[in-house]
Amino acid sequence: MRNLVHTTIVASSALALLLLATAPTDAQTYRAPRAADGHADLSGIYEALNTANWDLEDHSPQQGPMWQTGAIGSEPAGESVVEGGTIPYKPDALEKKKLNFANRRTNDPEAKCYMPGIPRANYMPYPFQIVQSPRGIMFIYEFASANRLVNMGKPEEAGSDTWMGTNNGHWEGDTLVIDVTGLNGLAWFDRAGDFGGKQLHVVERFTRTDPYHLNYEATIEDSTVFTRPWKISMPLYRKVEKNAQLLEFKCVEFAEELLYGQFKKQGSK
Amino acid sequence: MIRVGLLVVMVCASLWGQTKPGQAKNWTSPKTPWGDPDLQGMWPGNMGVPLQRPESLGTRTTLTDEEFAQKEAQAKKQAQADSQSTAASDSVGIGPPSYWVERGKPSRQTSLIIDPPNGRLPPLTEEEQKLRKEARGGKGFPGEWRGEANSYEDLNIYYRCITRGLLGSIIPVVYNNGNEILQAPGLVIIRNEMIHESRVIPLDGRPHLNPAIRQYMGDSRGHWEGNTLVIETTNFTDKDAIGSNGAGYPGDPGHHSADLKLTERLTRVDADTLNYQATIDDLKTWTKPWTILIPLKRNDHYQLLEYACHEGNIAISDILSGARADERKETK
Asked: What is the pLDDT of residues B254-266, one digit of tens each?
């Protein structure tokens, strides 16, 4: 009997605690746990759960670039992650985007296993890991072993252009803000051929909104391609599987036939 | 409040640790704020030591003063020649012009291999000898490119920019030797410039991946033994090779099997030196385990740059299309 009473008390107080813990779902009231340096702890393995990598803008379901694979590799419908719905392209840039789309099977840098660049790396259908270290905040992406180290010290000017950019970060409250410059402008934003140019400048904001999600925002500007800066936002989902870890996706081998097949000797394997 | 109190205690403890008498002389490994030995920093490799020891040196692990002076003079001559060379050459290759290459600072260490005691690779097993001979219908594994280029598969994974593999990313070669160590509670990251690898090593004692999952960089688990980080890596693929896969050291170790078990031991021995030791245990390939030692020197000024090897790889299409052009010429 005493055991039963005890169990009931424990159970109800656990329930109360659970309610208490889950009640403030509002990002305004959630306080992220602290990392070793006292800042919000964003570390973990995350992945987007949307169709932004197919197309940042609103899109109907459609056949993918490879009819041979049928429904596998076809494009699910999705709602725009762009604030206001559409990307403000300049007219000639919009033409280039359309051309990109028409040639996406062979020209999408994802198909070629090129490093995905920023912002695309964050919403590809592959997990990535955030590690908060005293040397900076490291982003490690499963796709193509891409990675970037965010400098949290004195901002550094971009040296030569790179795929993953020069990343300078700082905290605004519990939000990690990353200023990305030095992007080479060769990466696409999605499989629909959306793209930036040589002047691409991305400012990202990562905020932990509850124990299992980050809110991701990116402001994208490039006056050579867009009429004004524009913004995307989406939640990123934490992988909660026990012992979750990044696995290897070295995709060069999967892209070689696409890239070099035309140069092989006839009849060779 | 408790947290603040704890912080004060920690700060006091670390101040006290610094001023403890008698410690100034003996260097002690620094600790991260959460108490792990702190290995963080930029630790680029130095190509000043051969992988295998010249047989004439026997079991001698260091050079004599005379031998070292000779080596230094040689390096000086080489550096001069490198700086005077131009990119123009009548031979075609993928190597950089010699004024780009980092041949390293001469060292007294006679070989990276410290075990077996003769500093040389143990003999290959019969099984591996057969495999290397019979691979690809008798052509063997693709090593240094010798001109045949029917397919990209005639070129090794080095040329193809797939990966340098775990050890090949650390064993110093003539360029891109940057290694950076970062730590966070519960894990260590080893970043290599070659080819933008970043290995996340959990320290939480979790089991290895199921053997059905095979990776070029394997599956690493770490733990501390005193101030030494011990990393055990399994789950390797057999498509990889140790060393730089034929493009670096003469007598590269080459292909290894999926049975490879790699044990790395990283120890800071002074403020500027991190000893990197690795034991290669793959009895399917080598008849005995063997061990290398690479003393890595701290270099805070080294900038680890993004090496977009595959993205910039025009060599493969040039080599293949060149070979096709040659064939067309021959049939005319």
From this structure: 889 999 999 999 9
Q: What would the two tokens of residue B262 be? A: 């790699």
Q: Where are the beta strands (DSSP E) in B166-217?
A: 179-184, 187-192, 197-202
Q: Are A63 and A70 in contact (CB under 8 A)?
A: no
By the 10 Å C-beta count (0-12 exposed, 13-18 middle, 19+ buried), B68 is classed as: middle
What CA–CA distance (Å, rounded) separates B71 from A132? 43
A132-160 b/e with 16+ CB inside 10 Å = b?
bbebbbbbbbbbbbbbbbbbbeeeeeeee
CA B93 to the chain's CA centroid: 23
- pTM attached to this predicted model: 0.89
Q: Find chain A residues with C-beta within 8 A of B217's C-beta.
A: 248
Q: What is the ipTM for the molecules in this complex?
A: 0.88
Contacts of A99 (CB under 8 A, 6+ apart): A193
User: B160 with A252: CB under 8 angstroms?
Assistant: yes
> Cβ of A247 and B215 within 8 Å?
yes
Tokens of B143: 């090593």
Select from A143, A260, A266 the residue whose CB has the most chain B CBs within 10 Å, as the one to mutate to test that interface: A260
The span from the first CA to the last CA of chain B, in angstroms, equals 87
Cross-chain residue pair A140–B189, CB shorter than 8 Å: yes
The CA-based dihedral angle spanning residues A156, B311, B51, B269, taken in that order and rounded to the nearest 10 degrees = 20
Asked if B150 and A263 come within 8 Å (Cβ–Cβ), the reply is no
